[in-house]
Amino acid sequence: MSGRKTIGFTFYVNLPTEIKGKPTVRPVYNNFDLAGDLVSIDRIPGETNIAYKQRMYDKSVHLGGVDYDGILNEINRDLGSLREQALIIDLEKDGNGRPLAPSPNIEMLANRVILYSDWRPDGTRVIDREIRTYQKDDDGFYLVDLISQINLSTYFSASIVTGTRPNSFSSCLVRMNALTRVPVDYIPAEKFIKLEQQNIILKSLEFDETNIFKTEVSGVDPSAPGEYRVDYVEGSVLSYNTPTGDFGCGYHYVTFPLYIDILPVQLFSLQDPDFTNELYEKETLDSGEKINALPNEEGAEILHQLFLNTKVFWGK
Questions:
Q1: Burial code of 257-268, b = ≥16 C-beta within 10 A, e = fewer?
Q2: What is the SS3 assignment for 274?
Q3: pLDDT over threshold 80, residue 27
Q4: Neighbours of 95 (CB within 10 A)
Q5: Tens digits of per-residue pLDDT, 8-21?
Q6: Domain boundaries, the chain
């Protein structure tokens, strides 16, 4: 049998009055929906299979949870927006390819980016640049403006990831820190030790064996028992004595180039002073200290919405 076949039907209902209505549209389930059930992701109405598949894959990459990143990932994923890299920050280097900053670090906070040229665990904090990203009249409100401000730095440079809109809001960048703590890195029984990470923070190494690693020297090779030299950029240690290989050391390191993600829906805490400072007008006391006064327009709207959606009872 070949050719085009047409199948049709008619029906008649004998009712005293005319009945009008709209057909009920029901989704047609397929294997993607079955896979979504396995990972607890429902299809968004009208979502294509490709977009649905991307959200399911995103769940395995950007995990959900009860912390800041986890909640942020789940909220945006449920709304159909996926986490993407938007900003790249790297280190400026000298002619030998070594960073100009002595001990660099970056903090992306709720309302500003802080670029440290020298950050150490002992409390040393030398700020190279601090750029606000929240208020519209600030230098870094849009992503293109933030990049221009970072590129004024002596120690850091920034660029936009291909495909990211230059006029994206910098306040939508995901908060993060370039710094990571390694609790323990096991030491082999060798005088020259290559740590697992590079760009080690100055003076952050903590050795279990304090006799072999007793005195740090710089510029020269160790020449006496207990002396050692550290290349913080390469992440290597040269000691005078040979370690036994049955102990370790902890340290801080930074990751560069640093890729910072962006999401349209952000999560803020009313306990975060970097966020709450943006919700109030400022009042200067006689002592010169500035404190939060009455809520500004945005602060009043946020507080209003909180009261509308929260059961608050006044009384004793």
A1: ebebbbbeebbb
A2: helix
A3: no
A4: 5
A5: 555 556 666 666 66
A6: 31-82, 180-253, 268-311
How far, CA to CA in Å, does 188 sit from each of 195, 201, 244, 249? 10, 21, 7, 11
pLDDT, tens digit, 9 for 90 and up, residues 79-112: 999 999 999 999 999 999 999 999 999 999 999 9
Q: What is the dihedral of CA 55, 59, 60, 64, to 10 degrees?
A: 170
For the entire predicted model, the pTM comes to 0.82
* Contact of 115 with 149, CB cutoff 8 Å: no
Q: Which amino acid is at 46?
A: G
If phi > 0 it is left, if psi is from -120 to 50 it is alpha, else beta; for residue 89 that is beta
Q: How many Cβ atoms sit within 10 Å of the Cβ of residue 212?
A: 20
* Ordered alpha helix ranges (H), the chain: 31-38, 49-61, 68-78, 143-150, 273-276, 297-309
Q: Strand, helix or coil at 306?
A: helix
Q: In what order do the strands lie in the sheet with 156-160?
A: 156-160, 84-91, 258-262
Burial class for 218, CB neighbours closer than 10 Å (0-12, 13-18, 19+): exposed
